[in-house]
Amino acid sequence: MTAHVINGKELVSSVREQFKQEVSELAEKGIQPGLAVVLVGDDAASAVYVRNKAKACEAAGIYSVVHRLPAETSQEELLKLISELNGDAAINGILVQLPLPKHIHEETVLDAIDVAKDVDCFHPVNVGNLMIGKKGFLPCTPAGVIEILKRMDVQISGKHAVVIGRSNIVGKPMAMLLLREHATVTVCHSKTPNMEEITRQADILIAAVGRAQMIKAKHVKPGAVVVDVGINRMESGKLAGDVDFDDVVETAGMITPVPGVVGPMTITMLLKNTIEAAKRANGLV
Ligand code: NDP
């Protein structure tokens, strides 16, 4: 069996087209959603992510501003900027690109972002809302994975979903969103013994590990849907997922290649959250 390889370009552009339409409808009401992205330091990968986010905003008609701060920026200076952005009516969403330099306490900075502008859904209030199923922002990468599954007509309800990874950014919220969609969810991590025995039971397997090509055909049930969240830079400079694509493509029923699907869909969910924040700020939802 050879898996259906998801075409990210086609999928992502159709979702973005929908949001572009929403932005133009807001423009008719005199509203333009605005996103502020804050980048501290000169991490090359972060700079690329930030550029891609700004480009996606521009293409969708969302106002975006990037604050590039030097690596030696103090925590106080960063908090001052966040406080200004919290009070800026033109800005509906604030995103602080991670990782931050070591001298800055990440949690303190993320907690300082106005809950209503926390489009990354990292603030404890938004994380709590997600946990109890209250309406609010959904974290971009896991929400993007659900969007992909739904757009590909993958049945989630009643299926066994296995998530590999339990980070606060991907693994844990991913499990929560799958649970919301009525999957039976198992989470694996670095202390899980005999992981293959568990992953081989998955109808839907989500890899969010951060280890290049770790997931092989032996981890996958024939016909399973495999979503690869991982982005790993190989020595050759090429990007690779957490899934060994060439090995797994013969076993899975459906698979997302890396790069090109989960990454762009994550950015698309950022646009979605920014539009939603603008609607809320203007009393439209
Ligand atoms: P973290 O390093 O925060 O978490 C990795 C998780 O994988 C941990 O829970 C860890 O377990 C688990 N793990 C590590 N080694 C193993 C192993 N051998 N077997 C089983 N589990 C293991 O990473 P993130 O969650 O932030 O990111 C995961 C991947 O997703 C990365 O490649 C990252 O670049 C990518 N990513 C992609 C995004 C996108 O837009 N496409 C967005 C965000 C991340 P333990 O908790 O026990 O240590």
Q: Based on the structure given, which CATH architecture of the largest domain is correct?
A: 3-Layer(aba) Sandwich
Q: What pattern of helices and strands is seen along the backbone? A: EHEHEHEHHHEHEHEEEEHEH
**Helix share bin:** 40-55%
Name given to the CATH homologous superfamily of the largest domain? NAD(P)-binding Rossmann-like Domain
Helices, by number, come to 10
Strand order of the largest sheet: 1-11-8-7-5-6
Mean pLDDT: 97
How would a textbook summarize the main sheet?
6 strands, parallel
CATH topology of the largest domain: Rossmann fold
SSE layout and pairings?
Blueprint: E1 4-5, H1 8-28, E2 34-40, H2 44-60, E3 63-69, H3 75-86, E4 93-96, H4 106-112, H5 124-132, H6 140-151, E5 160-164, H7 171-180, E6 184-188, H8 195-199, E7 204-207, E8 225-228, E9 232-233, E10 239-240, H9 245-248, E11 254-255, H10 262-281
Parallel strand pairs: 1-11, 2-3, 2-4, 5-6, 5-7, 7-8, 8-11
Antiparallel strand pairs: 9-10
Helix pairs in contact: 1-10, 2-10, 6-7, 6-10
NADPH dihydro-nicotinamide-adenine-dinucleotide phosphate binds next to helix 10.
